[in-house]
Amino acid sequence: MLEPQPAVAPHPDIAHLAPLLGTWRGSGHGEYPTIDSFDYHEEIHFGHVGRPFLTYRQRTRHAEDGRSLHAETGYLRCPGGDRIELILAHPTGITEICEGSLDVAGDGLRLELDSTHIGRSTTAKLVTALGRSLRLSGDTIDYTLRMAAVGEPKQHHLAASLRRAE
């Protein structure tokens, strides 16, 4: 069993991502041509261990009946300058590598990411592309997710607004 570690400062290479650290909660709306539209509640947690990446954990539940909908876990990396990478695993058999740009301005951040690689198990749904836009302003994160899947072109799938929970 690992012993609790004392708090450490974020690695200097990701210090500008520190405003993301913590737990965020909110609600969103999903739609896609092959499914019924739905509302959901979401929790995201960004953490760090002093290395040059943030840890990322996400969970969603259906707004009406509370059933679990989706989860993602992975890492947010900043390889230099205004470049950003998001590496994720999904329990649906999909892995996702997205790369893009990071804009830091005042108390805000803006990330624009597009998939450079989608891996999938033989039983996973055919997802061919993903794109994410995330904007942090003060204590609010707003994001959208675009997806190409099951023969449909890349298009809007999710949008949510989350507030700092701590």
From TrEMBL:
Pathways involved: Nitrogen metabolism
Cofactor binding mode and count: Binds 1 heme b group per subunit, that coordinates a highly solvent-exposed Fe(III) atom.
Keyword match Kinase: no
Keywords on record: Heme, Iron, Isomerase, Metal-binding
CDD domains, alphabetized: lipocalin_heme-bd-THAP4-like
Cofactor(s) recorded in Swiss-Prot or TrEMBL: heme b
Chain location of the short sequence motif GXWXGXG per the record: 22-28
InterPro entries documented for this protein: Calycin, Nb(III)_bact/plant, Nitrobindin, PeroxynitIsom, THAP4-like_heme-bd
MF terms in GO: heme binding; metal ion binding; peroxynitrite isomerase activity
Catalyzed chemical reaction(s): peroxynitrite = nitrate
Domain THAP4-like heme-binding, chain residue ranges per copy: 14-164
N-terminal signal peptide: none
Amino acids binding heme b: T34, K125, H157
Enzyme Commission number, as recorded: 5.99.-.-
UniProt comment concerning the protein's domains: Forms a 10-stranded antiparallel beta-barrel structure able to accommodate a hydrophobic ligand in its interior. In fact, this fold hosts the heme group, which is located in a wide surface cleft.
Protein name: Peroxynitrite isomerase
Source organism: Nocardia transvalensis
